[in-house]
Amino acid sequence: MVEAAHAAGRGLLRRFAQLPELAVQTKSGPTDLVSIADQEAEQTVRSMLAAAQPSYAFLGEEGGIAGGTDASQRWIVDPLDGTTNFLFGCPLWGVNVALARDGMVVAGVTYLPVMDELFVAEQGKGAWLNGRRIHVSARNSLIRSVLACGIPFADKPDHPVFAREMTLLSDRVAGIRRTGACAVDMAFVAAGRWDAYWERATNAWDIAPGVILVEEAGGIATSVTGDALDLERGNVCVSNGAIHTVLVDTLNAALYPEEPLA
């Protein structure tokens, strides 16, 4: 997984140097961008993983689900998380590679090529950044915490809910950040740089490595409503654990504006 992420990262850096000449297409909507860089990176990762474990199934953002005789083992790959950042010349983007066993993530790699930061986690073996053990932060109150989130853009739902979230949270925290790349934000929670991250419209390939990174770094991963995390449900909330309950309660309050926040 590490070798595949590094190989994809090298190819992406070459394409990054070719901006702004790189051809760009749209997928499901005018703001859902994709380029040859995404497609090449996914093919690189897929071919290397298939060579290592040919029986495992594969789920990639660009190619979707591909077969494998062992459907209980599945690679989950976002070859370029933060495509819009990438195409606009912003360095905050990365490669996501995860392995799920019976629907549970057991290993994950997030590689941020421009910063040359490699985040790795395996079930029961901790979380690591460039070979150094990492842990979530110890901050235990919202007022001392820096949060990150995914802001819904033009093709996404829940814009009114997000506006209420900001109203409820902005004067209760030390800061709120939006990098534009789920891979970056979840890795930063694992490393203690952010205290929490949430997003209401995600895909399995966006969040899979970050889930085990945060958990192995001592944090918590749930749905935005605080329920058990389902990779296919389309939302996530990860935190250092200490602020998780109060954050989830606040996010839930944004769904019901007629009810005052306790």
UniProtKB/TrEMBL annotation:
Enzyme class, first EC level, given as a word: hydrolase
Gene Ontology biological process terms, A to Z: inositol metabolic process; signal transduction; transcription antitermination
EC number: 3.1.3.25
GO molecular function: inositol monophosphate 1-phosphatase activity; metal ion binding
Source organism, top-level taxon: Bacteria
Catalysed transformations (reactions): a myo-inositol phosphate + H2O = myo-inositol + phosphate
InterPro entries given in the database record: IMPase, Inositol_monophosphatase-like, Inositol_monophosphatase_SuhB
CDD domains: IMPase
Keywords per UniProt: Hydrolase, Magnesium, Metal-binding, Transcription, Transcription antitermination, Transcription regulation
Coiled-coil blocks: none
Cofactors: Mg(2+)
Residues the record lists as binding Mg(2+): 61, 78, 80-81, 206
Family as reported in the entry's similarity comment: Belongs to the inositol monophosphatase superfamily.
Protein name (Swiss-Prot/TrEMBL): Inositol-1-monophosphatase
Originating organism: Luteimonas viscosa
